[in-house]
Each structure stands twice: as C-alpha cells, then as structure tokens.
C-alpha cells in the first residue's frame, strides 16, 4: 500500500498561518511557552540552536529574547511570511527547506522539534532522515530535543478507529487511526456552541505519523545519539505509562 502524498504548501497555507497564532491562549499561553523556553535555554547551555519547522516563531522568538541565538528551518512560504511580521532576519535567520535535508551549518548546541512536528513527516524513512539531519548539526555534547504525543491506541473502542481527544464548547478534536501504517488524521471541528446559532461547522484536517517513544529512541541511536532525559512535559515532570506526551532529550557523545 502506497503512502499518501501531501502538498505541505497547501496544508500550511496563508489561511493556516494567519489562524496559527493565538496570543496568550492555547499553545501560546504563558504557562505553555514559559516552561518550554526555560527548558530549551537550559539545554542549550549558552550555545546556538536550530529549530526545525520553526513555523511562525512561537518558541523561537521568545527563545531569542531569552538570549539563545536561533536559526530556523521552515518549508512553508506562508509561515515564514507570518514570522517576518514579528521579527527580522537579523535577529532570527530562517532557511526555507525541508527538515529532513536542509542544512544551516554545524557546531550547534541544540536542535529541537516542538509540538508534535516530527509527526508531520508521514513515513518512517522521512522521520529517520530528520533525526539524522538534526544530528549532523550538533557539536559533540550537543542535544536534540523532540516533543511528541503518545498514541492513545488503548483508548480506541473495540471495532472503532477513532478517539475524541478534545471536547469543549465550540470545538471537537477527533483522531482517526490507521494502525497498519501508524497514520493519524486529526479532524478539527469548530462550531457555534449555542444551539440557536445554526447547524454549520468548520472542519479542518491534518495528517500525522505517530511514533512510539521506543521507536524514536531507535531512530536516535541510528543517528549516533543517546537518550539523556525523557519528561512527561516541559516542566520536566516524570514520564510514566499514563503520560499523554513526552519531551525526549538526546545527546551526541
């Protein structure tokens, strides 16, 4: 069975880039951004960093403001344009390209991927290539950091292929699973929570390939990296069998 072909420029278009930033809320909330930036700054240990798939600069901009030099890699024209509305190229250089192959130099203290970004690569080969590309940027002792969700296959009802991940007024997130290919499609449903507000809803979908923590560890080993830490979140809490996500820190010997 062939893997799906996704045009990333269409997936991450102008409309998506405009809607991506939610200042002060969601993944832009201070309680989310603060621990993320603090952990990454500590891991960089004063050295320069690379963010793969930098997007609109959600993490890179506050990390730069915290004193860590960052270079971004980003494929989407629209996401780069949105980032440039907030910060100039001198303070945050960005190279347009694919995170599996694009090189921006070497000798970096830190390379990182946040908010499930590696799952945007829809094959195992692409994910392995991404990890290897990250490792090539690092100096000895440098770190590669990945934030990724833990697949909730245990939550799948018998005979069903979907889970409801978020249910709140005006928004539903439903994930449908193809367990044979480790593919998930996230269905984001927005609607007026007032029943008198009409019957229309807006649906957007995004495809992902999930990888188990152990699979990610093997990818890292193939790239010459060693697991240093695994946390349940950026607050560095303990990762357990019940954790819904993880932050994994790998180090180049």
Automatic annotation (TrEMBL):
<dbReference type="GO" id="GO:0008168">
    <property type="term" value="F:methyltransferase activity"/>
</dbReference>
<dbReference type="InterPro" id="IPR029063">
    <property type="entry name" value="SAM-dependent_MTases_sf"/>
</dbReference>
<protein>
    <submittedName>
        <fullName>Methyltransferase family protein</fullName>
    </submittedName>
</protein>
<keyword id="KW-0808">Transferase</keyword>
<dbReference type="InterPro" id="IPR041698">
    <property type="entry name" value="Methyltransf_25"/>
</dbReference>
<dbReference type="GO" id="GO:0032259">
    <property type="term" value="P:methylation"/>
</dbReference>
<dbReference type="Pfam" id="PF13649">
    <property type="entry name" value="Methyltransf_25"/>
</dbReference>
<keyword id="KW-0489">Methyltransferase</keyword>
<feature type="domain" description="Methyltransferase">
    <location>
        <begin position="50"/>
        <end position="142"/>
    </location>
</feature>
